[in-house]
Write a structure and sequence with these properties.
- The protein is an all-alpha fold.
- The protein has one domain.
- About 75% of the residues lie in helices and about 0% in strands.
- The relative contact order is 0.13.
């Protein structure tokens, strides 16, 4: 699949989409670390995480196609990306906290609420 087809499916390969891709990788990696740390490594749970990430990607394709069909002023793709990024960040914070990495609450709040300026 060439770049033109990927752009049609996912939209621009902009910073928002790139950050989302990086965060889903980080979330999966921190989830594996958490499982190892808690001695609960399980391939079925890992597979569920992958299925969830694939679901995110499929919803982004649907949103992009709706934006293409009705015009970009709807911007559903970007709204979904912001929502998914926030969800991934929360999960990353939960995973790292579970493996003993302390993150001050005020920093957590700033990270989680940082997206408020985009609402």
């Amino acid at each position: 699949m060439n770049n033109i087809n990927l752009t049609f499916l996912f939209g621009k390969m902009d910073i928002l989409f790139k950050i989302f891709l990086i965060f889903i990788i980080i979330d999966y990696a921190t989830g594996v670390c958490k499982s190892i740390y808690q001695k609960k490594l399980n391939s079925q749970i890992g597979a569920k995480g992958i299925v969830k990430k694939i679901g995110y990607l499929l919803l982004i394709v649907v949103a992009q196609l709706i934006d293409t069909l009705y015009g970009t002023e709807l911007n559903i793709r970007n709204m979904l990306l912001y929502m998914f990024i926030t969800n991934e960040v929360i999960s990353i914070l939960e995973n790292t906290t579970s493996i003993g990495i302390s993150i001050p609450i005020n920093i957590k709040e700033k990270i989680i609420n940082g997206g408020d300026k985009y609402k």
